[in-house]
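Subject: for your reference before the review

Hello V.,

The reviewers asked for a structural picture of the protein, and I figured it would be easier to keep everything in one thread rather than splitting it across files. Below is the amino acid sequence we used in the manuscript, unchanged from the supplementary table.
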Amino acid sequence: MSERWMTAIGLAAAIGTTGAWLPQVWQTLKTRSAADFSWHYLRLFATGVFLWLVYGVLRRDIAIMVANAVTFLLVLAVVFVKWRGR
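And here is what came back from the structure prediction:
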């Protein structure tokens, strides 16, 4: 399989998995409540996403880097709303 096809598949997967977070973040920002998210979940998920981002950088894989950078920013938005709601 060519490098182009592998990158296209990776970017398509990134759009799907990162896009799945958009409704969650939208609802959180709209209601200004992140009460349904536990701190443990957010910490663990953010750590995992950040480590995937580092992995993508080390591998120089654009799909992994973009997907996890965007997802990490979305998770930080939820963390910010949850922190402000204290």
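For the response letter, the relevant points are probably these. The chain has one domain: 3-84. The CA atoms of residues 25 and 66 lie 18 Å apart.

Happy to draft the paragraph if you're swamped.

O.
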